[in-house]
Amino acid sequence: MTAPAAALLDELDERGIKLYISDGRLRAVAPKDAISGDLRQLIERHRAELMDLLGHGDGPAPSAFPLVTERLVLRPLRAGDEVDVLAYRGRAEVFGYLDDNPLTPATIGRYVAMMAQFASLDHPEDRLLLGAELDGHVIGDIALSRGRARHAQGEIGWVFHPDHSGHGYATEAARAALRLGFERVRLHRICARLDPRNAASVRLCERLGMRPEGLLRDERWLKGDWADVAVYACLDHEWRARG
């Protein structure tokens, strides 16, 4: 890792220019006319170092979805999922430890349409949301996001229908998402941020092999009071060691 290349990557990021690697080539997503001739030459001069900094692999191609596990089909949300998603995201008990409020028949259509856009991790700072489909019905969803490319960090989260708890569906889906993050996107670290009072999510993190990294005291304002946030995480070599 060279300092000039790292500084250049930061400068490009501030300009809204996102570099990434696809098919072994250095590519960019940038505002129109943002990459001048001089800047293009500078990028070319540091191509090798930049690719080393970004060398955490490609994001999944659209054809990588759905992800099929033993019992579930994980795929981006789409029109027609509204009834299934409302069945769990419309329940007050699901949001006891979450910042959001339950969805309603009036808001579910807009929500599904918005979440359907989060369908890839091709680029740095992308977010992916996959519905967990069981026997043709979505019973929960898994979110996986990635940060700036040079840091190779990700964050995972989940929401599942309480009527389907106790069968290991959330564990199965989350494990598939971690596998995607570590083995396909080649992230270095994936964390989960959760309310420490949420015993079900704490147990899920433990089943996934995620370590407790710390407790953020009074980190957020939740439903009229300050609430702590527990951070759990797993590193790529820890994931590989578990096979």
From TrEMBL:
Instruction: Give the organism, scientific name.
Output: Dactylosporangium siamense
What name is this protein filed under? N-acetyltransferase domain-containing protein
Q: Which SUPFAM superfamilies does this chain map to?
A: Acyl-CoA N-acyltransferases (Nat)
One Pfam short name: Acetyltransf_3
Q: Name one GO cellular component term.
A: cytoplasm
- MF terms in GO: protein N-terminal-serine acetyltransferase activity; protein-N-terminal-alanine acetyltransferase activity
Domain of life the protein comes from: Bacteria
The chain positions of domain N-acetyltransferase read: 72-238
